[in-house]
Amino acid sequence: MTNSDAEEPCARPPNKKFKKNPKKTATSNFGSSLFKILENHQKIPEDPEKSFLLSLLPQIKSLDEDQKMLNF
């Protein structure tokens, strides 16, 4: 094994010019736009009674007409 063989694995690859990936730019633009929207979004306080009633909606929809008439 010669000195040149020992240096070869440590040698740097030649400099290549890489093209920028346009997808990364679009993603970062999307991310920053989304962040701005979410940052400026004013959250409306949720009504706990409305939330409770809406949580029952899937069960009520699964009832047939006879069950609905008996219960409501």
What features would you describe in this structure?
It is a single chain. With 72 residues, the chain is mainly α. It contains four helices and no strands. The mean pLDDT is 75. Keywords: Nucleus. Residues 46-72 form the BESS domain. Residues 1-28 are annotated as: Disordered. InterPro entries: BESS_motif.
Quick recap of the structure?
It is built from 4 helices and no strands.
Topology:
Elements: H1 3-7, H2 22-40, H3 48-62, H4 65-71
- Uncertain stretches: none
Our estimate of the beta-strand percent is under 5%
Number of beta-strand segments: 0
Portion in helices:
55-70%
What is the gyration radius calculated from CA atoms?
31 Å
Shape: elongated
Structural class: mainly alpha
- Distance N to C terminus: 90 Å
What is the makeup of the main sheet? none
The chain-level mean pLDDT equals 75
Alpha plus pi helix count:
4
Q: Secondary-structure element sequence?
A: HHHH
Pfam families: BESS (PF02944)
Subcellular location: Nucleus
GO molecular function, one term: DNA binding
Protein name: BESS domain-containing protein
Which keywords apply here?
single chain; 72 residues; mainly alpha; 0% strand; elongated; DNA binding; nucleus; BESS domain-containing protein; BESS_motif
